[in-house]
């Protein structure tokens, strides 16, 4: 029997775990490293599993939701969004449990490719859904995670009137949080498993100076673009939690820190 994509991901994930026990670079004394894994698209089973793994270590996950994806008749933007997504019953439950639930667009459109006024309409529709369905949502206290990490200077300037922060394309190692920090760059990898790339990225980050790494993840195991092995996520959080000077935080708690 040939190796399926699902089995290949499992094999890769199992092999990658050994890298953790080989040891990450230990940050130099006095350096501070914040790591945010920013999970996009809101796949139902992946989001539930992600939250459970984070809770195992007393941590809060960062889950970014396509506002219209759960509604009947919503269009799938591409093959990497074909898995069932959660609805706001789930998102409210996870928020009550301490997880960060943030907007990831109204219908996962590439806003940088649209006329500015059309992009504004979609963002406002996204805000309207969150206002209606997510408890205690306030856009001005939230981060907008741009679909495809695609933005323009004009759109970013306007988003600054709506949100506390945005996540978009750019240098994944951001400065440590300071008052007024608005634009967060990130990195990602795909469409195959991100396991090795994520480990290499974190190891390189920890070997460097203080900063804030934002890594854009998606589903777990075989779901979404660039999936992450759930076993690797579990081992990764366990390992990082025991390292001095390293914090695993969602975006808003990081900004508040």
Summarize the structure.
The chain has 257 residues and is an alpha/beta fold. The protein has helices spanning 5-22, 44-56, 88-96, 116-133, 153-159, 195-206, 230-241, 251-256; strands at 33-40, 62-65, 100-103, 143-145, 165-169, 173-174, 183-186, 211-217, 246-248.
Please report which band the strand proportion falls in: under 5%, 5-15%, 15-25%, 25-35%, 35-45% or over 45%: 15-25%
Using the coordinates above, name the CATH class: Alpha Beta
- Provide the residue-averaged pLDDT: 88
How many whole angstroms does the radius of gyration measure?
18 Å
Question: Which key terms come to mind for this protein?
Answer:
single chain; alpha/beta; three-stranded parallel sheet; 8 helices; globular
Polypeptide structure, described:
With 257 residues, the chain is an alpha/beta fold. The protein has 8 helices and 9 strands. Strands 1, 2, 3, 6, 8 and 9 form a 6-stranded mixed beta sheet that branches. It has a 3-stranded parallel beta sheet with strand order 4-5-7, with no helix packed on it. Strand 1 (33-40), helix 2 and strand 2 form a beta-alpha-beta unit. It is globular.
Q: How is the secondary structure organized here?
A:
Layout: H1 5-22, E1 33-40, H2 44-56, E2 62-65, H3 88-96, E3 100-103, H4 116-133, E4 143-145, H5 153-159, E5 165-169, E6 173-174, E7 183-186, H6 195-206, E8 211-217, H7 230-241, E9 246-248, H8 251-256
